[in-house]
Design a protein that fits this description.
Number of helices: 13
CATH topology of the largest domain: Uridine Diphospho-n-acetylenolpyruvylglucosamine Reductase, domain 3
Number of domains: 3
Strand order of the largest sheet: 17-14-16-15-18-19
Radius of gyration: 22 Å
Number of strands: 19
Largest sheet: 6 strands, antiparallel
Helix content: 25-40%
Bound molecules: flavin-adenine dinucleotide
Shape: globular
CATH architecture of the largest domain: 2-Layer Sandwich
Distance between the termini: 37 Å
Length: 497
């Protein structure tokens, strides 16, 4: 196994896309699960901090070490089994999501989760329960995980399949490969009904596999995933529509969301009726931010919506239905970009990705950490919340861009402070936005997770008693509190008297 202890050889692993950086003594690159287990057994009891590194595209400092060692999973990147009849894929955690998508599509199969950034590892997406644009129709990563192999900090193994092990109300236990029974209590907080990636997934009688998905590597290291696949849709309609009035764009999204939900739940065929799989919004400042790279954005645009629908029919009914809806909200054909093949569809994906990337570049250039919301609120309060949020940021004198997964009522409002003083103001406004989202029965993180940068917001969301319950749960799997310590909650909750 490769082991590097010259920091110059692993500096890239000391940060992630949040621009937060840390320190570590060395980094290990296990080439298979056995090597990883041997390493962990050797370290067991020494109380050395262990930080797991995926693709490093996380936005909350989760893979950023704060001492100890790093374990990179990039060499565990093999396909183990593709079962076309039963539509599943078994894969190692270091496989890059882009490679995975291409691989399954070459077999006429489809893996729906799509967290915008395709350079992430599949293991990282499971650890954060990543979602993204297609979550509107297909749900988050959690909905596609059928099984996991998880290595505990002492090298022991838990193998868990969906539908096999459940909590008894809030009491639970799992058996490890060595025969040890781990008993633990599921924390008792109530999760919001919105899209959510804040803290452990906890529910009475829950399927225990869900505890590990989104646990940000604090309970164990995922070394194998069994993923659910679906048949590859024959056609994808992908479209970016530019509006001259942002109210028209909001109204368009609302109607498209309502119709899509009704059609989906009534199981009406997407071959003829409007059923979006993605509904994404860009405000005028986002379009201004993108315009140097995209000079063809119509000059008088005040907002844009990127939507996608997949379908199997060979007719134009779906396209015509969408065009009618766009016209209803004053969006003319000359303000619409339509993708007619996979290459063009990918270009729209790049357009969506570019705005997130440009914000990260802006923050890096100003040597500041990202202050972008990941909140989500219930549908009935979304519009009012969105207006309130924009007003709040503007009246604090801060520039921003607003875009995101509006189908899921999940806005990414990214503040663009120009200096330290503005950054401090932005952080205060950020806390106010999170507090209001929680007050409205929403969440502080709908998809990125908590990592090391959002602990205070999780504390505000669930309260200290819930955080202590989470820490107790972690202790059951990681008694020394060494694995990804500092993710989800502050390390002080892991200290034992
Ligand atoms: C431009 C851009 C756009 C993005 N858009 C989205 C989006 O739309 N939706 C979304 O959900 N996310 C988005 N992200 C965030 C990011 O891509 C996801 O969080 C992704 O899931 C992280 O995967 P990774 O492999 O890069 O993980 P890393 O950043 O390396 O790690 C993330 C966390 O997972 C842990 N981890 C990684 N692998 C394992 C493992 N095998 N076992 C246990 N723990 C592990 C790490 O320790 C860390 O805590 C975006 C990021 C960027 C840069």
């Amino acid at each position: 196994m490769i082991h590097k202890n010259d920091i110059e050889q692993f500096r890239n692993y000391l940060s992630d896309a949040s621009n937060y950086s840390g320190f570590a003594e060395s980094i290990y690159f296990p080439e298979n699960e056995n090597e990883l287990r041997t390493l962990l057994r050797k370290l067991s009891g020494e109380k050395i901090l262990i930080t797991v590194s995926g693709g490093g595209t996380g936005l909350h400092g989760g893979r950023v070490p704060e001492g100890g060692i790093i374990v990179s999973l990039e060499k565990l990147n093999r396909v183990i089994e593709l079962n076309r009849e039963k539509c599943f894929l078994r894969v190692e955690p270091g496989m890059i999501l882009r490679d995975l998508q291409i691989y399954v599509q070459s077999h006429d199969l489809f893996y729906p989760p799509d967290p915008t950034e395709w350079n992430c590892f599949i293991g990282g997406t499971a650890a954060t329960n990543a979602s993204g644009a297609r979550t509107f129709k297909y749900g988050a990563t959690r909905d596609y995980i059928l099984g996991l192999r998880i290595i505990l900090p002492d090298g022991d193994l838990i193998e868990i399949e969906r539908g096999k092990y459940f909590a008894n109300t809030l009491e639970a236990s799992v058996q490890t490969e060595s025969g040890r029974k781990i008993n633990f209590k599921i924390p008792s907080y109530k999760m919001p009904e919105t899209k959510n990636a804040s803290g452990y997934f906890c529910r009475p009688d829950m399927d225990l596999i869900d505890l590990f998905i989104g646990s940000e590597g604090t309970l164990g290291i995922i070394t194998e995933l069994k993923l659910k696949l679906i048949p590859l849709p024959k056609n994808v309609l992908s479209c970016i529509a530019f509006f001259k009035d942002s109210e028209d764009a909001y109204n368009f999204i609302e109607e498209a969301r309502n119709i899509s939900k009704i059609n989906s739940s009534a199981k009406i065929s997407s071959d003829t009726q409007l059923t979006a799989r993605a509904l994404e919004f860009f405000d005028e400042y986002s379009l201004e931010f993108l315009s140097p790279d995209y000079p063809n954005i119509p000059a008088d645009s005040k907002a844009a919506v990127w939507f996608e629908q997949d379908y199997d029919a060979e007719t134009d009914t779906v396209i015509n239905n969408w065009i009618s809806l766009l016209e209803k909200y004053n969006c003319k054909e000359d303000s619409v970009w339509l993708a007619f093949d996979k290459k063009e569809e990918d270009k729209f994906h790049v357009f969506r990705h570019a705005i997130a990337l440009k914000v990260n570049e802006y923050m890096s250039a100003h040597n500041l950490k990202k202050v972008g919301t990941d909140v989500s609120v219930p549908e009935n309060v979304f519009r009012e919340f969105n207006s309130w949020m924009k007003q709040k940021v503007s009246s604090a004198g801060l520039k921003y861009v607003l875009y995101g997964h509006f189908g899921n009522c999940h806005p990414h409002l990214n503040m663009l402070p120009e200096n330290e003083a503005e950054y401090e103001t932005a952080k205060k406004v950020y806390m106010e936005i999170c507090s209001r989202a929680v007050l409205l029965k929403g969440t502080v993180s709908a998809e990125h997770g908590i990592g090391k940068l959002k602990q205070e917001y999780l504390l505000m969301m669930y309260g200290e008693d819930s955080i202590k319950q989470m820490a107790k749960l972690k202790h059951a799997f990681d008694p020394d509190g060494v694995l990804n310590a500092g993710n989800i909650f502050n390390k002080k909750y892991l200290e034992r008297n």
